[in-house]
Amino acid sequence: xxxxxxxxxGGKNISFDEALKLIKTGxxxxxxxxxxxxxxxxxxxxxxxxxxxxxxAKSGRCSENCSFCAQSAHHQTSCQVYPLMSDKEMLSAAQxxxxxxxxxxxxxxxxxxxxxxDQELITIGRTLAGIAQxxxxxxxxxxxxxxxxxxxxxxxxxxxxIHHNLETAESFFPKMCTxxxxxxxxxxxxxAKAAGxxxxxxxxxxxxxxxxxxxxxxxxxxxxxxxSVPINILNPVAGTPAGxxxxxxxxxEVLRLIATYRFVLPRQDIGVFGxxxxxxxxxxxxxxxAGANVTLVxxxxxxxxxxxxxxxxxxxxxxxxxxxxVH
Length: 327
Fold this sequence. Notes:
Layout: H1 2-9, H2 16-23, H3 30-45, E1 48-58, H4 87-101, E2 105-110, H5 118-134, E3 138-142, H6 148-157, E4 161-163, H7 173-176, H8 182-194, E5 198-200, E6 203-205, H9 211-224, E7 228-233, H10 241-245, H11 251-264, E8 269-272, H12 276-280, H13 286-290, E9 294-296, H14 308-317, E10 321-322
Parallel strand pairs: 1-2, 1-9, 1-10, 2-3, 3-4, 4-5, 6-7, 7-8, 8-9
Family: Belongs to the radical SAM superfamily. Biotin synthase family.
Protein name: Biotin synthase
Domain Radical SAM core: 44-276
């Protein structure tokens, strides 16, 4: 593992078979895998950890049937339902994230397959402009399927990054969602890149996908040359198919996933976001040893995160630094 880490640092792109061997590491050898992954993340990212925040700017009644999502109209959940927030509300949340949480990237996230009206796009653009004028943060959106012209309109208003998860491997995607395709996800990522906007894209794990499919997704993200990869772990929500049918994956399994993604994606930012508190439990600090250099502070879309102060203290206790630079 250490030899392979040195080869990755030297520029090697590891193969599917090599990555699969890493993600299949046994429990007794997992600490060695984490140590090797740590060499890679320290080489490319140093000891700095980036903090991101999001706001659930429009909630519920989504037309799509993603198996894990509490906001899908296809599932019976207790998710809140409300229309797009005002630009003032979204801007206030962004300013709080920067001043009180130390975030350097803020994302506006909306429920639904896409932005349905011109007015919604105008409100989001006005919010991005306000964030650009009053903070130093990266301005990100997660709005579902978007065209290149829509992305260019938002870029003109101040957008710097698109968040658009592939969610899972292409071979598993139809088991996760049937109302839109994997190809549609890829098309939005390519549209963002064509518009000159950087892309944050990752997935959610614990949906019943195989280890091979977790590696498949990692290599797909590498081929798309995204700059940041968020790893989310299923936090089962009552009323969703995924919450009903899939038992939680173990902390050791989560750490092997993070480490393998660091080997496959050595130069990318790798974040551990939704579900980390529950999935990793007392082993949560090890996500940074395993290769993560980003995390999300504050609340998620429909679940609460731990206090930002607790995250900041965890990072300091590990001898790491909160990265105040905007990338």
